[in-house]
Amino acid sequence: MAFSYRLRNLRLLSARFWSVLCAVLFLPTAPALWVLTFLSERASRCLTYGGERCGSLLPGWLFTWGVGLAVLACVIASAAPTMRVRRAAFVVQLLSECAALLVILSFA
Hints:
The chain has helices at about 1-40, 40-50, 60-80, 85-105. It is mostly helical.
């Protein structure tokens, strides 16, 4: 009886745990990708020559919407009462964080 209760609680907390973990890991990943992006030839030329070949292949609003949607999905995944909603919010969070990171990488 106690084992099944613990297993059920572990299953219920898994989406919450992974959602918060991915949100926490996103915070150092984004600045690290900015640093790696500035090491590329295209971004270095942009910084050195003041605007030559600057710009992203993806629009900047995609980063803003990706981060905003990831925060909203993390809150929903942490607070939703049903497992189905938490899992869906977690998937949305992962996809939106990936979209935001791809925008950073598109500057390289």
